[in-house]
Amino acid sequence: MFPVSRRRFLTISAAVVATAGSARAAPLHQWRGVALGAEASITLAHPEAGRIVREAIAEIDRLEDIFSLYRADSALSRLNRHGGLEAPPFELLECLSLCSALHTATLGVFDPTIQPLWALHAERHATGSAPEQAEIAHIRPLVGFAGVTYDAQRIGFARTGMALTLNGVAQGYIADKVADRMRAEGLTDILVNTGEFHAIGKMPDGEGSGWPVSLKVGDRVLHDAVHLRDLALASSSPLGTVFDAAGTVGHILDPRTGEAAPANWQLVSVTAPRAAVADGLSTAGCLLTRQELGRAVSRFAGARIEYLG
Predict the structure, then answer these.
(1) What is the pLDDT, as a whole number, of residue 206?
(2) What stretch of H or E contains 268?
(3) Residues near 233 by beta carbon (within 8 Å), at least 6 away in sequence
(4) Which architecture does CATH list for 8-302?
(5) Which of 160, 156, 200 is nearest to 181 (CA)?
(6) What is the model's pLDDT at position 114?
(7) Are 196 and 171 in contact (CB under 8 A)?
(8) What percent of the chain is helix, strand and coil (3-state, nearest 5)?
(9) CB–CB of 71/65 below 8 Å?
């Protein structure tokens, strides 16, 4: 369903960007960086902004040590490499529990075990050709979330060669965890962006309407600003990252067929109290009809489709 380096629509074909608000009594401080390969930022107005941002960066780094597929010693990389992981981190178990709920709500369309198929597509397209149907058929038995077992003692796979990517939820999950730490410290009026958005309170002096976030594809605004107040937003684009030089084969794969998602939607945007939930729903939405996504979203309290088109 989603790739190792998922939907870079923020910097390639579509974007979700924070817009400027009204005049403010104090200037906003903004850090910009990277989280799980995505452009990231933290925006706030606070006299200790530097310290707050440093602590947030440390938390992002800690969580990348769990979820990153680019760090060879991350918990997820070790799980994929060895086919099992003893004493897994709580955060990895929590993410897998959410994946299970998303898998059920989307009737199996959301499936983090898609990683072996994604690797096949990436490898073949790198040589200038698509995978053959026989190759896809050979790999497909490795895909299926029912083949993942997990508890506090161990995570394991039912079949040798299975692998996970959590990039369909991990960016949102990291945004949630950073926001949770800030809330625990009593902070408010902060916008966390780790590739997905989690707003704490509202934009300072933003007249109470929340943090305004615009939905865009390229330079074209698709939707009036969504105002986030103690709310998260995630977006996915089927062609946000592509396998082929022509830009026609998208990066989100359908576990039911092993093929790339048809480009039925330019952008799928979902809001929810938790960014990880919005993240997973927006990803799966690239493979669903409007009615199917609506049913999936209804399974999560406070979730809502903000844009589908």
Answers:
(1) 65
(2) strand 268-272
(3) 16, 196, 197, 199, 213, 226, 269, 270, 271, 275, 278, 306
(4) Roll (3.10)
(5) 200
(6) 97
(7) yes
(8) 35, 25, 40
(9) yes
Orientation of helix 75-82 relative to helix 90-105, angle to 10°: 70
User: Which region holds residue 250: left if phi is over 0, alpha if psi is between -120 and 50, else beta?
Assistant: beta
CA nearest to 203, candidates 187, 185, 188 = 188
Structural domain boundaries of the chain?
Answer: 8-302
Q: Give the Cα-Cα-Cα angle 12, 18, 24 (nearest 5 degrees).
A: 155
* Burial 147-158, CB ≥16 within 10 A → b, else e: ebebeeeebbbe
In sequence order, which ranges of the chain are alpha helices (DSSP H)? 49-67, 75-82, 90-105, 115-126, 133-139, 170-184, 275-285, 290-297
Q: What's the full length of the chain, in residues?
A: 309
- The angle formed by the CA atoms of residues 243, 246 and 252, to the nearest 5 degrees, is 30
Please give the average pLDDT of every successive group of 10 residues along the chain, which has 309 residues: 43 39 63 92 95 97 97 98 98 98 98 96 89 95 97 98 96 98 96 97 81 84 87 91 78 90 89 98 96 98 96
Task: Report helix, strand or coil for 75.
Answer: helix
User: CA 215, 219, 220, 225 torsion: positive or negative?
Assistant: positive
Q: Please, are residues 168 and 110 in contact by the beta-carbon 8 Å criterion? A: yes
Q: Which two tokens stand for residue 253?
A: 């794969």
Whole-prediction pTM value? 0.91
| 212: helix, strand or coil | strand
